[in-house]
Design goal:
7-stranded parallel sheet, alpha/beta, 5-stranded parallel sheet, binds flavin-adenine dinucleotide
Length: 322
């Protein structure tokens, strides 16, 4: 392999996003296997104080593009910059995260560069000097093993929390600046403000524990049981689409095919039947606990532990015990 590995380091609220360390760590492994350089890319404002943190992820070099016009994530501006940095740094692979931002950025980048993208990867490896990746397909019902067959920079996005960052790979990276030229990069949209919906709660996609509720809660007021259990466990709160559509909770809590894809260590599904569209967003969770009054509910097929019973009795008992 002749080129380098470029790792886009996602920044959120002025800090490296936790997924950035996962991307860097996997990038380091590939760079070591292929004998190439790992180059981290920071875009935003301010980002120049994050280079040392990128160093902890094992980068050989960090390219920084900092400008006040880049303060808020903008896929049109960021993809243009990333394409140019990738060309300048002889990218063979461009890696990033399959987050909300990453999905917007890398699909645009792939289109712009007319190259191939493998999204939402849960495993990466090398066989016979060729990279392969595993990617859940058809709503998570199959795992596809995919490789590239293209002689251009190849793009990979990693599913958040599917990889554990390696320890002891820290380096002191070379730092390079990439100047932002406002005449060269333009966007049809202007972001003037971002407002966090989290309300202080851990975002669903970053949470280690999620307590989720479905129609088996019977009415909107009972969602407070989900919130109370989550508070006891330091967990984020999720929901099935049925109760989002019913207006019990806002869309930001929805887990599933048309909601968020989550990958916590523990997912507690309360009164959720386990429709394939819900499973698509959570079945890669490490441990799944299901509470459902129907012993034949499909959720029990993928649950690590199941409790057959009424969630309106079990949840208060659990909260009391905790
Ligand atoms: C294109 C498309 C996309 C979709 N995307 C999503 C998505 O992103 N996320 C998603 O969740 N869904 C999605 N859906 C909807 C999905 O098909 C299901 O309709 C939905 O997940 C059902 O939600 P639920 O499990 O809360 O409700 P139900 O299917 O009604 O299940 C309620 C469950 O609660 C149990 N229950 C009832 N009372 C109690 C009680 N007292 N104690 C314990 N258990 C009880 C029942 O046994 C049942 O299993 C999508 C559907 C389509 C067509």
């Amino acid at each position: 392999m002749s080129g380098n590995i470029i790792a886009y380091c996602e920044v959120k609220n002025g800090d490296l996003s936790p997924i950035a360390m996962e991307v860097l760590s996997e990038g380091r492994k590939l760079a070591d296997k292929f004998g190439s350089k790992l180059i981290g890319v920071l875009i935003g404002d301010p980002v120049s104080d994050l280079e040392a943190k990128c160093g902890k992820g094992g980068v050989d070099k960090v390219v920084v593009c900092q400008n006040e016009a880049l303060k808020y994530f903008n896929d049109q501006l960021y993809s243009g910059i990333l394409a140019d940095i990738s060309a300048l740094e002889s990218a063979e692979f461009i890696m990033g995260s399959a987050t909300f931002y990453g999905k917007a950025l890398f699909s645009r980048l792939a289109g712009m560069m007319e190259t191939a993208l493998i999204p939402d990867i849960i495993e990466i490896g090398v066989e016979n000097d060729n990279l392969f990746s595993k990617h859940p397909g058809y709503g998570g019902n199959i795992i596809m093993k995919l490789g590239f067959n293209i002689d251009k920079p190849k793009i990979l996005t990693l599913r958040p929390k599917a990889f554990t960052p390696q320890e002891g790979i820290s380096r002191e990276p070379e730092i390079a600046e990439f100047p932002f030229d406002p005449t060269k990069y333009s966007s049809n949209t202007k972001v003037t403000e971002t407002v966090s919906e989290g309300g202080g709660q851990v975002p669903l996609t970053e949470a280690d524990i999620i307590v989720s509720g479905g129609r088996g809660l019977k009415e909107a007021a009972n969602y407070k049981l989900i919130e109370e259990l989550a508070a006891k466990l330091g967990a984020a709160t999720g929901a099935s689409r049925a109760i989002v559509d019913a207006g019990w909770v806002p869309y930001k809590h929805q887990v599933g095919q048309t909601g968020k894809t989550v990958n916590p260590k523990l997912y507690i599904a309360c009164g959720i039947s386990g429709a394939i569209q819900h499973l698509a967003g959570m079945q890669s969770s490490k441990y799944i606990v299901a509470i459902n009054k129907d012993p034949d509910a499909p959720i029990f097929k993928i649950a690590t532990w199941g409790i057959v019973g009424n969630d309106l009795e079990i949840l208060p008992a659990l909260i009391k015990k905790l």
